[in-house]
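Type II toxin-antitoxin system RelE/ParE family toxin
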Amino acid sequence: MIYNGDTKYKVKFYKDIKTGKSPVLEYIEKLNDKEKAKILKYIDFLRLNRGYLDEPYSKHIKGKIRELRVDFGQNRHRIFYFTFFRKTIILLHAFQKKTTKTPISEIKKAEENYYNVLKSPKIYE
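Structure:
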């Protein structure tokens, strides 16, 4: 494990305040075991690398939002995330990419979740 001072990085799933649901966790749980294992491995790799991976594993999207890129055969999974204070990586939104360009609607969902995190930061401490 990589340590930065006394505190290691941790990963948390965005949680909708109204429903209590975590869309990224729900997305991952619906996948088959092999895809799920690969995504969880990449998430841990992201944590060990302090929230930053170079392409092709991760790509900057907008502002502080980045995209974790996990390809499994023909399935291209994308998880938007950002690094929050106190060494916390928040996984905002996940989807299966089916086009060459990332759909604006998917970026907007991640942005909305990002702003919701900023409005209620205590949930992620």
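Residues 10-124 form one domain.
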